[in-house]
Design brief:
Two copies of one chain form a homodimer.
Chain A (H helix, E strand, L loop, with lengths): L2 E4 L2 E4 L4 E3 L3 H5 L2 E9 L2 E2 L2 H14 L8 H21 L9 E10 L8 E9 L6 H6 L1 E7 L13 H5 L1 H6 L4 E6 L2 E5 L3 E6 L2 E4 L8 H10 L4 E4 L2 E2 L8 E6 L3 E8 L2 E2 L7 H15 L2
Parallel strand pairs in A: 8-9, 8-16, 12-13
Antiparallel strand pairs in A: 1-2, 1-7, 4-5, 4-6, 6-7, 9-10, 10-14, 11-12, 11-15, 15-16, 16-17
């Protein structure tokens, strides 16, 4: 049902393979981006493309396709998903997640970049369980900061290494902090609410497209502050939440042993999730 | 000519491929090891296996094969290389490099480890040009320390990112230092010689098998010190060199703008290279 593109070919994802001299496999040299379609249209396409291009440039990888060429492939893959969903007797087209992966490509000497490999994959969207929106999630603090956090490299070793610690704490994710300064969760951004103020870290973060969207949606109702967020800021926060393309606006009610606000999902988080849902429903 | 093993199959390396849901591709989650054969025998096999196993354990990946099973595959691949070299009319078997790669494996949700993938590849050995042994190499300092340096993860983003800076400085590699403390080169260990003392960093390093071999070879002629090595140690060092399986004992005569000793390859480095060459020739 899910298809992908690699080197001029569109095929079922389970048929797509990469040769073993690719620098992502040999040297962890790769970057990616990830977005959803809503009503069959790529959400915030211009912003995602810009970020993808920026990551590529920061990692000295030349994109093998232009924006328009890439968009044409994206829409071809959307059409394939729709065909598959019609075949399965579904009345409405299904939305999909897109994962773009750009690697250092095949390397003869196992270290030098020759020609980057670009993969464009569609994937099933894994929605966050409704109970997490109702109760909020728990995260645990981790003394870590992502190297080149603003580049969406494929380096997610840390959260995979910490999987057992997260499970043991009955938490959902890590909240990275270094020297008392909070940056982000393992795959999403971080916000706190204090009164009418919406506060989010501005350094050592991936510049999330959902983060940017939420900041826009919040402009008329909040005083938005992009600035350093310290661990001490958690103690008098009314609410906290995290944003990502799949998580949308997901409340955080506990950080380690610390309860945020009154421990329940707050009205500001709910309000912003509603605004976000309205936006994507009419996308 | 070069073959590899993946999931029960031995095939020509250019025929081996990995599916696109592998966590090395999606999340940079992989580790490896790398060693050479001498006279058709894997050099220091026991030590390499121990290190590979240790890396796997540190990254919570279960090895799908035992040491004996792996050794049997290694020797089968050595035999394949010999067959190929006979077919090409070569009288003596060629030695090869082995690269073991263990990844997080295919992941349905793009983040959870299910079953690791193990690749065993043979590769051509790229020997260091003779001129580098005669004149020594230049390295440039880089303000960096590898995360979990003692684990041979596939994370070599840094040196690929810095390739242009290395070229621009007409250097061969990076020498990592953080806060004035030297750890290692991008893919090899670091030693300095002061009089009869052989000094090498002991922290934030990959525990090189060539490093360990050289320390053994040096025992009777040097006072070996495994300890912190500071930038200031470079100023009164007589000699410096780097060790790795392909570099063996490779002299370093320049660090950035600083000349080491008299700028020529020193007698102690030559002595240790000779001892190393004797060892591998009779392996």
């Amino acid at each position: 049902m899910y298809h992908g593109y690699f080197n001029g070919t569109i095929a079922s994802t389970d048929q797509l393979t990469v040769g073993v001299t690719d620098l992502s496999l040999l040297r962890g040299y790769g970057l990616f981006d990830y977005f959803l379609t809503y009503n069959g249209r790529p959400f915030q396409w211009d912003w995602y493309w810009e970020r993808f291009q920026n990551s590529a440039s920061r990692m000295h990888l030349r994109l093998p396709l232009s924006k328009d060429e890439t968009y044409a492939i994206v829409m071809k893959l959307v059409e394939r998903s729709n065909e598959a969903s019609r075949k399965n007797g579904l009345a409405t087209p299904i939305d999909v997640a897109f994962r773009f992966i750009l690697t250092g490509g095949y390397s003869a000497d196992s270290i030098s970049i020759e020609k980057p490999n670009l993969l464009i994959l569609t994937e099933m969207i894994h929605p966050v369980p409704a109970v997490q929106y109702e109760q909020g999630i728990k995260v645990i603090l981790d003394d870590y900061v992502r190297d080149m956090a603003e580049v969406k490299s494929t380096d997610y070793k840390r959260v995979i290494l910490m999987a057992e610690a997260i499970r043991a704490a009955r938490a959902s994710d890590l909240l990275y902090q270094k020297g008392g300064e909070i940056s982000e969760l393992s795959r999403s951004n971080f916000f706190i609410v204090k009164g009418e103020r919406l506060i989010t870290p501005d350094k050592h973060i991936l510049h999330g497209i959902t983060r940017k969207t939420v900041i826009q949606l919040a402009q008329s109702d909040f005083q938005v502050e992009e600035r350093s967020v310290l661990l001490s800021d958690l103690y008098d926060a009314d609410e906290a939440f995290t944003t990502s393309s799949t998580k949308k606006v997901l409340p955080i009610t506990q950080v380690g042993e610390l309860t945020i606000g009154n421990g329940h999902v707050g009205p500001k988080s709910k309000f912003l999730l509603e605004r976000f849902d309205e936006l994507v429903q009419s996308w």
